[in-house]
């Protein structure tokens, strides 16, 4: 088959879902009612929904067929054994505990491995992951390379761990107070940036020297494997499956949100090689999720995850996915829209700090931009900046992340290049009217994970009328 740069979608459409059709006046009301928080909009009120790639995937006919093979026994479902065998084959870990989604696995891992006063290094924070670490008494330390915080630094593996920062933390607090390093592949909030195989190996060597375990956040691991194949010497002729297996061979376990790279609508799991940890995890899962053979999932959901993993590693699928992101990014770049570069594996992150350079970070530029883009075009996106970053658990002060972005997240197998054209035009049009966008202030600030349910007020009503 001819190999064009942007090959058409590697799937045919068999079932359709209608999209929201609100006009601009109706959207203006909807976003105000949602407190200018795109998480609080009704999905039916959105035209193109790029809020997240989490659980928003289109499953294949094979996955749907697998759903009908759900064995809904309370214990010992055959779908669990199928999932276990697929995870062992593709991830290589000995033990798997299914959970209802990624944070279910994070809860179990953090509760079992962290004691109060511990430190957890990670290559940039993720909201729910850090929440569970802190809830169990740990302090999170960011050990990602400095360039990851600079939207314009163009590096092939911008998600890498800075080994000097990791070593400095070990020297400062001692290896005994670091139960594990949380190694995200790819790094969501850095823009979906990958970690190189070489860096994974080095992290593993350093960690294991001090008896520190390497626990991956494997949420977007297939995207990471694709970037290794594309960018790292020696991996061009390896399959995605082989690369994935090698990536995990250097670690001790992982948490996984199946809602991303297992291409399902729900599900997750926790993996480990340590038998004692597995036994303890089964003790926890029965308290919070369900039997160790279903962990909060129906048999059919485990079947869909097992099949989804085998589809996610297919080259046609993953290369199309990453190229969709690039297609959107290149269109925006041609119009001068500021973004995190290089483009990552799941989303385009628009640099809201520069897009709305008339606003200070305290006027929540990314939150304001996400609300404005929805009102302007019906495209729903998500804030990833000061609001998501939350407050320091000890001082109560706001974190001030360098990256203040909105995330245009592409669900898997849902939208076509034509949809992305519409999104690009909308962002570019709004960019031309950007000085009309007002900042926001808090109306209601929740105590934890405030970005999900917080509400806001417009600072300057007049400006909003303008675009
Ligand atoms: N990520 C996302 O939209 C959904 C929740 S935040 C809006 O990016 C990583 C790297 C994630 C992630 C979820 C989780 C938690 C862990 N690690 O959502 O609980 O991106 O399945 O996974 C979201 P669950």
Class of secondary structure makeup: alpha/beta
Mean pLDDT: 96
| Span between termini | 45 Å
CATH architecture of the largest domain: 3-Layer(aba) Sandwich
CATH superfamily of the largest domain: Type I PLP-dependent aspartate aminotransferase-like (Major domain)
Walkthrough of the structure:
51% of the residues are buried. This protein has helices spanning 24-33, 61-67, 78-90, 102-113, 127-135, 163-173, 197-209, 221-231, 240-249, 275-288, 299-312, 315-334, 352-355, 365-377, 386-389, 417-432, 450-453, 461-465; strands spanning 48-49, 95-99, 119-122, 139-142, 180-184, 213-217, 253-257, 268-272, 347-351, 379-380, 382-384, 405-409, 440-444, 455-458. 41% of the residues lie in helices and 13% in strands. It is globular. The strands form five sheets. The protein has a five-stranded mixed sheet with strand order 2-8-7-6-5, sandwiched between helices. It has a three-stranded antiparallel sheet with strand order 9-12-11. It starts with 23 loop residues before the first helix and ends with a helix. With 467 residues, the chain is α/β, with parallel strands linked by helices. The longest helix has 20 residues, at 315-334. The protein folds into two domains: 24-53 and 315-458, Aspartate Aminotransferase, domain 1, CATH 3.90.1150; 61-312, Type I PLP-dependent aspartate aminotransferase-like (Major domain) (Aspartate Aminotransferase, domain 2). The protein has 18 helices and 14 strands. Helix 7 links the parallel strand 5 (180-184) and strand 6. It binds ligand PM9. Ligand PM9 is lined by residues 52, 54, 101-103, 126-129, 184, 188, 217, 219, 257, 259, 268. Residues 52, 54, 101-103, 126-129, 184, 188, 217, 219, 257, 259, 268 line the site of ligand PM9.
